[in-house]
């Protein structure tokens, strides 16, 4: 892995995260350099089902449009059930890191697999805790990886997409 820059944005809901991903893609960002992390939605009234076939996922329910659409854009993803947090979907580069961590059974003291993946690319542990809390409260993370110049552009796009927060990390491993 080579050092790269990463921008992490927190969005209130799936619609805002979807809008941000579409804005990044339409601005020329390679989907391979994006990651999306958020919880699946499960309620008794509006159940969401997940069904994997190769690299495609179909999702049923009122919030299925986001995950079905995003899954088609990304090359890989994971569906995890984490203690306390519940169901979480991870798409993009971060999914590969989590899969590697799961294969090696690597979890960093006291944080989840998602936290371990974020820590492994160099995001500070205090920030990781903030992002884990955001996921627990049904927010969505959008991560962009690339050069410093690309990250300046990504930050502007994510700010314009009404993110709760947008943080940049220089020289993390991606």
Explain this structure.
The structure is a single chain. This protein is of the alpha+beta class. The protein has a domain of 121 residues: 2-Layer Sandwich (Alpha-Beta Plaits), CATH 3.30.70.260. Helices cover 39% and strands 31% of the residues. The chain is built from six helices and eight strands, in the order βαβββαββαααβαβ. The chain has a six-stranded antiparallel beta sheet with strand order 5-6-2-7-1-8, with helices on both faces. It has a two-stranded antiparallel sheet with strand order 3-4. A hairpin with a 2-residue loop joins strand 3 and strand 4.
Topology:
Layout: E1 3-11, H1 14-26, E2 34-39, E3 49-53, E4 56-60, H2 64-73, E5 77-82, E6 86-92, H3 93-103, H4 113-120, H5 125-136, E7 140-146, H6 148-160, E8 165-173
Antiparallel strand pairs: 1-7, 1-8, 2-6, 2-7, 3-4, 5-6
Helix pairs in contact: 3-4, 4-5
How would you describe this structure in keywords?
two-stranded antiparallel sheet; 6 helices; Alpha-Beta Plaits; alpha+beta; 31% strand; six-stranded antiparallel β-sheet; 8 strands; 174 residues
